[in-house]
Amino acid sequence: MSIITAWCLFAISAVVIAAVGSRMTAVADRLADRTGWGEAIVGATLLGAATSLPGITASVTAAVDGKPQMALSNAIGGIAAQTMFLAIADLTYRKANLEHAAASLANMLQAVLLVFILSLLLITMATPAIAFFGIHPVSPLMFVIYFAGLVMVKRAKEYPMWQPRSTDRTRTDQPDEKQTPASQDWGLWLRFAGFALIVVVCGIVVTRSVSAMVDHHDWLGESAAGAFMTAVATSLPELVTSIAAVRRGALTLAVGGIVGGNCFDTLFAAVSDIAYRDGSIYHAAATATSSSGPSEMTLIAATIAMTSLLLGGLLYREKSGVAGIGFESVGIIVIYLGLLGVMTFV
């Protein structure tokens, strides 16, 4: 593949991913209302998983191609980028700080779950390599923790032991449509599945094109390419869906889509470990970057810091701050830009 072709395919696929992502938001919001699941749960599961499809496709493709750094950087870099996207969505909501308006216990619990899984990944990469049949034991454990966390979130929504205080700027999840039998929702489900298939194909194209760029450009490393090219391109649905959800007034869906999607995205690392057949992908990536500057461990640590700020914002619920956004959004943007500089130039 020529370098010009690679750049063209990358750009076209990114645009398609962004365009389809906006359509998925509207369908997901309607399904949240018609199924009775609620915006936070749909954001964490259906919308979060579907908009993550191009990302997981990119990570698995990179792992199969023998590029462990790109696979992990795409997985974690996507979480960092999507958290930053939430700060951008905050800028588009002028009535109040988004984290104040989108009060939800479910979103807070998902943020806690995300910090826990990311911390587990950091511990895994810092400890000696272990693998059974080429898979690190933490990979299947991540699936167990993720689904157990979803059960906890669902129970908290149904039987809350704590509730955020409602203010004049709080926007709660109010269904726009009545709950309907599942048999009447097949059209929506089919549309959602069609959109999901499109973003999967585009995710493969993005990975192949970026891999070609890494091979052509000596200055472009796997870690930076994964964290800030494939990760951002495949995360564009989250940016589009978040802004679209905010404009529709579905604020809980906007926050839940990002935080829930980020929790799902941690599984990219586990699936990539399974797809990578030369041992533990975590230690393969750590070994490859041990003498070449900031590694995926730096990326994970920064992402934990960004998520902690987000959780703090959801708990503190500042009504407005600098530029009309909360302290957490300002901090998230600063950390992400600093991470971009460190990963690219150090």
Automatic annotation (TrEMBL):
<dbReference type="InterPro" id="IPR044880">
    <property type="entry name" value="NCX_ion-bd_dom_sf"/>
</dbReference>
<dbReference type="InterPro" id="IPR004481">
    <property type="entry name" value="K/Na/Ca-exchanger"/>
</dbReference>
<keyword id="KW-0732">Signal</keyword>
<protein>
    <submittedName>
        <fullName>Inner membrane protein YrbG</fullName>
    </submittedName>
</protein>
<feature type="signal peptide">
    <location>
        <begin position="1"/>
        <end position="18"/>
    </location>
</feature>
<keyword id="KW-0812">Transmembrane</keyword>
<dbReference type="GO" id="GO:0008273">
    <property type="term" value="F:calcium, potassium:sodium antiporter activity"/>
</dbReference>
<dbReference type="InterPro" id="IPR004837">
    <property type="entry name" value="NaCa_Exmemb"/>
</dbReference>
<keyword id="KW-1133">Transmembrane helix</keyword>
<dbReference type="GO" id="GO:0005886">
    <property type="term" value="C:plasma membrane"/>
</dbReference>
<feature type="domain" description="Sodium/calcium exchanger membrane region">
    <location>
        <begin position="6"/>
        <end position="151"/>
    </location>
</feature>
<feature type="domain" description="Sodium/calcium exchanger membrane region">
    <location>
        <begin position="189"/>
        <end position="343"/>
    </location>
</feature>
<dbReference type="GO" id="GO:0005262">
    <property type="term" value="F:calcium channel activity"/>
</dbReference>
<keyword id="KW-0472">Membrane</keyword>
<feature type="transmembrane region" description="Helical">
    <location>
        <begin position="297"/>
        <end position="316"/>
    </location>
</feature>
<feature type="transmembrane region" description="Helical">
    <location>
        <begin position="129"/>
        <end position="153"/>
    </location>
</feature>
<dbReference type="GO" id="GO:0006874">
    <property type="term" value="P:intracellular calcium ion homeostasis"/>
</dbReference>
<feature type="transmembrane region" description="Helical">
    <location>
        <begin position="188"/>
        <end position="210"/>
    </location>
</feature>
<dbReference type="Pfam" id="PF01699">
    <property type="entry name" value="Na_Ca_ex"/>
</dbReference>
<feature type="transmembrane region" description="Helical">
    <location>
        <begin position="105"/>
        <end position="123"/>
    </location>
</feature>
<feature type="transmembrane region" description="Helical">
    <location>
        <begin position="323"/>
        <end position="345"/>
    </location>
</feature>
